[in-house]
Request: fold
Amino acid sequence: MSWSVVVASPKGEAGAQWGDTWFAADLVDALKRLGQDAKVVYRNGASSEARETDDVVVVLRGLRRVVPRRGKATWLLWIISHPELVESDEPAQYDAVFAASAHWQRGESEEFGVPVTPLLQATNPHRFGPSAAEPDTGDPVLFVGSTRGEFRPAVRGALAGGIDVSVYGVGWEKFLSADQIRGEFLANDLLPAAYASAGVVLNDHWRDMADEGFLSNRLFDAAACGSRLLSDPAVGLDEVFGSGIRTYGSGGELVSILSEPRDEAFPDREERLALAARIARDHSFDARAGVLVERARELRDGR
Reply:
């Protein structure tokens, strides 16, 4: 089947810095490994006449709503972020709906009038794995992400406690001095080595996404690399990652954990490698693509 994976990202250099773009690229690669003909379509292409010739269109719902352009295509909606932005009449316009949470209350309710199937975010173990770099040879404490217009809690808490953090992302000049910012952009092909070599990878969520169980893609990627991970709590995090990720409830607790000897504060290398293998097996884009292909075939066979 021919597939288009629609993202909210703009085309070009600006869109290359969006996580949605790389999420889509990894999904497209996984679909191709399953014998599908797939491509990424940026937001301006969502309403193109070309969508009428696709067999399947997957809309990765983030910041922007997409109204399906009906033709022969089967339209699938995968809500991967910002669930609060999903409008009540939106899911019913699709042939099937997925959400990157097993605990999303709106998705479990009857508000949308259609079933919402949990389909968590994922990683690409063909790129993200423990062999990407030697452990503990990179940044002692690493954070990769934009400010999202706020002084992100993970970075703010660490720096307030005197912990040096290597920060990559846009918008940080508003909160940090130039010498505290490693770069505005860490190329996606460099991320696996950055995660695998870091002493600790920091993570935090949008509050509503944590409360609704939309687990960060960073968790899947870094866990697949065997990284030590320190994150804010999120609904469902322990169900997916078990005891493999440490969580902090406050800035003080974050600093306390980072101040402990790493081998005492975090799971040992053997446990982290076991988690990496499980994430690669159960939470890969190949596994997610398999679900989407099966559902698309069911829908198209049932027409």
